Amino acid sequence: MQSTMKAVLVVHGGAWAIPDCMSESSVGGVKAATLGGFQVLKRGGTALDAVETAVRALEDDPVFDAGHGSVLNACGEVELDAIIMDGRTLATGAVSSVRNIAHPVTLARAVMEQTDHVMLTDRGANLFADSLGIATVTNEVLVTEYEREEWRKQQKYSVGVKNLFNSQCDHDTVGAVALDSHGDIACATSTGGIRNKMVGRVGDSPIIGKSLSEAVDSSLQYMAERVNGGGGVIAVSRAGDWTAQFTTERMAWAAMEGDVLSYGLNPKEVFQETLPDFQRVVPQHQS
User: Fold this and answer.
1) Model pTM?
2) Contacts of 197-201 spanning 24+ positions with Cβ under 8 A
3) Amino acid 13: pLDDT
4) Catalytic residues
């Protein structure tokens, strides 16, 4: 008889200099996404379903740069990237520069499961979404007033993308990684990219080939030395060990294992809550 693995889910809301006015909602958002995704695992669901559920929750939360909280490109439009990967089969699907889609992570999964391709981009991704009957939303629905004001400021003062990256003052990718009771791992990410980017710019988020290295510290150090940038990593091993680390000022993250919810925002910060009645009650985060 095959032994049952312990289920684990780790979620992050982006590694950047999260301002104090957004810190509480950022932590609340990743906790809610983690609880929602872990509920899938507690019911015996797959890691793939869990990471999609968690990332969809982050895409619905306007505090994050994904889906409904996305940043604007140089022309004041939203272009979205997402990827999902099934560790059991090594199948993967991705979309980039897709427009007017509330949940690009779900569209990425459809690319993986319903096409012979790995990535669809721009108009092709939207045509595929139309063929599936996926509802579209307007650009206005995906953008907060906070983002509009920040975009206007950067247009006025000509703040470049390079400056934003080096200052860690812009939003970042969201993501989730999970291990299910069958021992299978899956991961997913979603992002609106970086504010004021050129139309058609695709970052590294939807690109297949990045690995969850065991040497997380070394990876982050290399990133800092090589490109003078900060970043964050969440990882889960086949044994159920997990980590959430970052070199930016802050990263909102949360992890669920058993009935223990761990979470944090600042460096070296870990809070824990025991939720013995988790299977019966799943708290809902209000944005």
Assistant:
1) 0.85
2) 197/73, 197/74, 197/79, 197/161, 198/73, 198/74, 198/161, 199/73, 199/74, 199/75, 199/77, 199/79, 200/79, 200/97, 200/122, 201/73, 201/79, 201/97
3) 95
4) 173
